[in-house]
Queue: 2 jobs
Job 1
Amino acid sequence: MSENIPTRFEDLANEIILDILDYLDIRHFYRAFFGLNERINRFLCSLDNISLVLLPSDDDNDQSIEYFSPRNIRLMVADGSCKIDLKRFSNVRSLKIECPTDSLLVQIQPTLFPQLDYLFLGISNRWNNSLNEIHQAIFSNGFPLLRTCILFSEPLTNRRWLVSASLRILIIGTYPHLLHVNTYRAILISCPNLVRLTLFGRFDHNNLVQQSTYSHQLNYLSLQSDEPSLNVVIDHLLSQVPNLKRLCLKGLPMAYPISAIDFVQLARVLHQRVPNLQRFDCHTFAILKNTVDINTIHSLHPRFAVIKYQHLDHPDFDALTTKVKSK
């Protein structure tokens, strides 16, 4: 064996140790190797943009949490019962809270997280004022570096929003609750540089207010819904984004019968509202077996040419999709 091959862990190159960290919790690594020698200590001190997961069993006296909390890290709170004080992570750039509770939400304040560029808030047990304040901050430039935001609650528009110029990607999921269509325009006005928007839920369009066309620069819009009147919703949404390049429509699997898309009407809407559309995707939209001529659908709009039948394990329904089936 060559004498140049390291035989001790502490002699491994930094690049190899970084690869090993892909398979280890950073805190386990700290507990196992901190203090081994000066080189390992310097290596740990140099780590940045690492992922740290907080669990219900953690407490503020954990030395590994104290060591990494001042860093620019990606922080995930895996359970709402976590009792760690989030204020100590003031330099966090990415924050993910899967089950936000009142005690966690009240800590998410712009002054405490000035470096935040990614925020994920899962389903909250109930609506509260803290959540409303977070939404107000998100859409009023409270987090000036925030680029990506994923919310599983609908932001209220009962207060005026300011411009949030940094936001580029926004995902809002409200299912099984209703998503108010008129909130959509407020989001576009608040986020002039938004590039990608995904909405997941059933839309409340009973009190739909027809407004003048708003020419937003949004490139990508994705809708996932079992909304029975989806064509009406699509027409309203697309009227605000004439520069759209990509549209993705997704049904909800196992929802039979799913919202029946009238492709003739949809093609007319696309021609009128988004003439520069470059790509159209649809996934798992159920149709009654042997009721649709796929060639007719292809002829309605150039972007429908990629739509295919997908056979479902159901006695009455198949599906239309553009998704390529993995082999």
Job 2
Amino acid sequence: MNNIGIADRIARGAIAFTLIYWAMTPTGPTLIAGYAGLYLLATAIIGWCPWYKSFGMKSKKN
């Protein structure tokens, strides 16, 4: 069921933490960055991306 490889998961996790941190700063775009960060963090933890599924993509090797 997973369609995200390990390198993709690590990159998503790093970007997610950066966006979530940026969302908590007073000058950052709070709502957009926060939701984007939460989405990336969730997909990194779960290992499945609905966008990849809808476009028939995957970064995980069999």
